[in-house]
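Hi D.,

Good news: the full-assembly prediction came through. Inputs first.
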Amino acid sequence: MPVRNAAIAAIFDEIADLLEIESANPFRIRAYRNAARTIQGLGADLRVLLDQGEDLTQIPGIGKDLAAKIKEIIDTGSCAALRKLHERVPPALSDLLRIPGLGPKRVGALYKALGIRTRKQLQSALQQRRIRNLPGFGEKTEARILEVLQADLQKKRHFQLVTAAGYAESLVKYLKDTKGVQDVIVAGSVRRCKETVGDLDIVATARRDSPVMDRFTAYDEVKEVLSQGTTRTTIVLKCGLQVDLRVVPKTSLGAALQYFTGSKAHNIAIRRLGQRRGLKINEYGVFKNDRRVGGATEKSVYASVGLAYMPPELRENRGEIELARRGPLPTLVQLPDCKGDLHCHTRASNGGNSIREMALAARAHNLQYLAITDHSKGSSIARSLDERRLLAQWQEIDRLNDELEGIYLLKGIEVHILEDGRLDLADTILGQLDLVLGSIYSDFGLSRAKQTRRIQRAMNHPHFSILADPSGRLLEERGPINVDMARVIHEARNRGCFLELNAQPKRLDLVDSYCQMAKQEGVLISIDSGAYRTSDFDNLRFGVGQARRGWLTPADVLNTSSLGKVCKLLKRTMQ
DNA sequence: GCCGTTTTCGGCCCGACTGTTTTCAGTCG
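Then the structure:
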């Protein structure tokens, strides 16, 4: 099994953990953490980059030393520096760092003073009250850690964006209805449209006498108040979602929003830029020698370091700052740019509504065209369509196209890509459709080589239009298939076909880094709802959010085109 | 360990809250 980026990032993170417990130079630790984060978000496979002879030190945060370690890990599967570290610090200690309330100093102290290496040893020492007498520990700390261990609270859940956004929107509404409150805005990873969210960050401005913090902790859904101050309060909701509320003066709103939207890596990079200009940037504003020079708006914060306003979805320190320094940022795709939707299901297969209902709902969402793409016969999904039922569906689509104004229905299918790459409907049928989505619905576990070949063969089919659900993943349920996506994207370009970004919250598939790759290759992405019922068209906004995270502009998206142009593009010509 | 319009050394983002402390270290985001 070849070493992948995630494994390299994990090794760097472990080195950082253990160095931290050793109280090593904090900047050296940060260098490992930064590198781990960069590697994880990297669009390209490091092994492939090395094979192509690329210079890894060109990657920000990777210098001579780390480049050599990456090469060592890829070549040998392990890292001598980590092995050496293990001789001094037991590897198990990095697990103790995951326990809230325990940081490197305390984990180090527990190990040095009491020899504690595991959760089990920790729990027994806590129960024997041996920890309260260590320097820096006390009764409260002992009780809190024991509580966390017993309740298994350390398992911090991640929530799908749609779920987190739902909680956030309710809370915003509740907080806005407080005396003296002016603005309440969701920041953090929800604002950046990350596919999963660990906690909510809410920024508010309020008059000094506003009871907003008390109202926050009194919210119906609160399970626990972790900390409460005048400017910051942290709670945990009954569902387990942690929420931070920050209250700042109106003049600091921009700085606070910028600060709490993150990402952390992006902010560090921005503040470093500020530092070089002699500026101090914090959540209250931009300061030059204690004189405020910006911070009322986010735009003013970016302007202070010579950059244009940056959409939240870009703020991941994945090259957006360099991009902004070179010239104007791309104008990212927005929901109203999407003129149609090329993937939905009806009652004919496993959807919940009729074709007419889906058409009317799409029109109500300001879409001009909608492709009906029920499942084909070979899929294991109940009531999938055979040739006979498909022909009947076409007649109904024709009738509706005659009847309905303002929405045009395209005839499509979501065809099952068989294990050997064939499609499970006859060519004569496929040739009569306006578009053919190809999806993988079985044999998820094929080897990388086989899976890649399977998709390439499917795309070879002259009537194949769009690779739907490209990775097949379902968040928290099923991981992505093992496939050489860079190659798939490249081959899609050669064959004139497209990739989908399925906007269902549990899919959000294609991921942002592959969207970027597709953009670079010139492969258009179709942002589709994959709707099963009329309400699912609401999900398109999450697909657009993901596309924006992948730096896509309207020109990079297939369904921003007019109906006429889309039909032309779908009639791909083999190259 | 990385980085460079202070360029091969000497910097490296910044503040809030808690608990254990008598002024601050540790943790967190």
